[in-house]
Amino acid sequence: MIICSCNRISDKQIRAVVTELLEEDPNALLTPGLIYKKLGFRAECGTCLTLAIETIINEIDHPSHNGCQVIHLSRLQEKIRNKKKNATSQRAVNKQTRQGLRSW
Ligand code: FES
Fold it and tell me: In 28-88, which ranges are continuous DSSP H helix?
């Protein structure tokens, strides 16, 4: 499934990079920006970031992985969901997501 239509990044690519990065450093803080950079891309419109985060979390949650970054990403995901409920447009959500990721 395509996660990022701007860069044509699939969930399989994201999962593979997450696995690779966790093998290198089990305590690595994985963000969509880091994953995209590893794949040779960068976020363009930001529409995919919520789905990218969910994909990262699902892969990290896999029993073969163990890392504290799940907590951080889960908090960010919860923050995004709360903002989504109150947002009147997808653009507002994307702006808030990018700001949240920059503050990391
Ligand atoms: S859909 Fe991923 S940056 Fe636009």
Answer: 32-38, 49-60, 69-86
